[in-house]
Amino acid sequence: MSLRHLLIIKQARSFRELAAPFFWTILCLAFGTGMVCFPAIVFTAAKRGLQTWWEIVLPSLLPFFIISELLMNLGFVSLLGRILEPVMKPLFNLPGCSGFILGVSYLSGSPLCAILTARLRRADLCTKDEGERLVAFTSNASPLFMLGAVSVGMFGNPTLGPFIALIHYVSNLLCGFFLKLFVKAKPYKREIKKNRSSLNCSIMDVFKGDSHLKGSSFGSLLGETVRNASTTLLTIGGFITLFSVLIEIIQATGIFPLILKLLVPFARMSNIDASLVRSLLYGFFEMTIGINEVSKSSGSLLQQLIIIEAILAWNGLSIHAQVAGMMLGTDLSIFPYLSTRILQVPLAVLLTYLFFPLLSQQHIATATYPLASGPVWYALMLTLCVIFAILLILILSLVVCFVGKCIFEYCRKKIFIIH
How many CA atoms lie within 13 A of 283 on its CB side? Predict the structure, then answer.
């Protein structure tokens, strides 16, 4: 390789290193300017975000955070890993200890699964590939959120909760099977400790080898667990509040209405209520706020359920940021998780359309929304519109990044010429 090529590579790396902080600095300055220009909106949005965290997230996640971390510290997860190894390996090509996280995903959901997976990775109980696939299809929504907050609190119809949860869980589980079939795992040999090398070793040996009670009491372990869980939940509350404020600032600056004007014609072509497009935009950023907007829309019940499942499958940028934050300190990448979210959206939409006729009139008797559906192509058109909306927002984000990099490069050249 010539010296010129080396200089070009060095300049490209230098540009990337400078472009990223410059781009994020511009975004933060724009965000701060919006907070100064719209103080009343910021206060209301922050209050709403904190209320969502206090009433929904805190009571649904805190007990699971404490119990799951206690079970890991007591050595139960290692024991469960040995028991579930013959099941998890053929189903998902994952180690047995991931079965605990899979179970937790149906009891609590994200971002707890990302936290537990990161702990497994730090303890070298799973490989990088296994950890990324595990996070990708275990980031479910909380059952308390779907059964309580969505069906009862937002729709006033508790019978819709099991249907929403079933579609969400099945579509995510299908993603896990697809990842096992189409993603080739790298061969990896785990080192097995001597006291666990034999299948005949006693349960006491397993607890003795992995328990954190050595040299400390259960009370101190419990106190440390509660402190860690509280700190994590405060972090999650910060993410929810931040994205709640971000959504309202984007709405106040007129960016949302501009995107709506681009998407409404496609919605009308598919006979989709325009208010659902607005809900989808909200859900792109924050799941709870988006689903709450769906419950206030005037679309048919089928349309509302499809948009809800699409938002639940996508998780929202707020959950994405939480998952990425919880995986810090490990070599796990966020991209398999994001790819799986895009894969789950059409799966969830199609499953909702296919299983909607199974809802009896007794299940939807309390619903005050029109129940009209459409022909077979209707679900396909609705799926394409949902995917198109997500891809359009992602493309707009990439365009903004590209423009920011071009401006930065132009300014850097000007400064270089001046000097």
Answer: 27
| Pick from 279, 277, 280, 247: nearest CA to 262 | 277
Which alpha helices (H) appear in 270-316, and where do they start and end?
274-285, 287-295, 301-314
Give the number of residues written for the chain. Answer: 419
| pLDDT for residue 389 | 53
Residue listed under structure tokens 């519109």: 385
Instruction: Name the DSSP letter for residue 55.
Output: I
Residue 2, both tokens? 């010539």
Q: What is the pLDDT of residue 2?
A: 61
Q: List % helix, strand, coil for the chain (3-state, nearest 5).
A: 80, 0, 20
Please calculate the CA angle 148-323-152 and round it to the nearest 5 degrees.
10
Is there a contact between 134 and 126 (Cβ–Cβ < 8 Å)? Answer: yes
pLDDT < 70 regions, the chain? 1-20, 60, 75, 77-82, 184-216, 270, 360-419
Write out the two tokens for 150.
Answer: 């969505």
Please, what is the average pLDDT of the chain? 75
What is the rounded distance in angstroms from the CA atom of residue 391 to the CA atom of residue 396?
9
Q: CA dist 261 to 3, 271, 275, 310, 359, Å?
A: 51, 16, 12, 21, 34
Let me know how many helices (H) and strands (E) the chain has, helices first: 18, 0
- DSSP codes, 347-393: HHHHHHHHHGGGS-TTTTTT--S------HHHHHHHHHHHHHHHHHH
What's the whole-model pTM score?
A: 0.72
Q: How far is CA 102 from CA 20, 141, 147, in A?
A: 35, 13, 19
- The ranges assigned to domains in the chain are 19-186+203-418
Both tokens of 385, joined, read 């519109």
Q: Residue 151 has which token pair?
A: 């069906």
Nearest to 388, CA basis, from 315, 295, 310, 287:
310
Q: Is the peptide bond before 162 cis (omega within 30 degrees of 0)?
A: no
Residue 266: closest CA among 387, 373, 350, 352: 387
With pLDDT > 90 as the criterion, what percentage of the chain qualifies? 9
Question: Backbone dihedral region of 124: left (phi > 0), alpha (psi from -120 to 50 degrees) or beta?
Answer: left
C-alpha–C-alpha distance, residues 399 and 16, integer Å: 16
Tokens of 200: 């005949």
Q: Are 133 and 336 in contact (CB under 8 A)?
A: yes
Distance CA 317, CA 330 (A): 21
